[in-house]
Amino acid sequence: MPNYYDIGDVIRVSSTFTDTGGLKADPGGVKVVFTDPDGTDTVVGPRTGTSTLNASINRSTVGVYFYDITPTSSGPHWYRFSSTGNITSAAEANFHIRRRHTTT
Known about the structure:
- The protein is mostly beta strands.
- Helices cover about 0% and strands about 55% of the residues.
- The strands form two sheets. Strands 1-8-7-3-4 form a five-stranded mixed beta sheet, with no helix packed on it. It has a three-stranded antiparallel beta sheet with strand order 2-6-5, with no helix packed on it.
């Protein structure tokens, strides 16, 4: 069941990457794909390792990355984190933005 938010909320989505032993580890690159209710994809990244070349994808600690989304439309939204390099994995999830009932 998705989480519910309102238009204008800043939603922090995150992903934790681990090595084959289950320990948190930084992948070679991290990418986020955000899909609006109309099916439009927004690709963010890749962020390469621990560099700050793409500061919109943030690294909070070893293996933990997050991205802040501010949706402007109601409906279901999907996001997917994926990694490249020494750790290759992907995970996706969704949340729902409620329809506005007021005009201002």
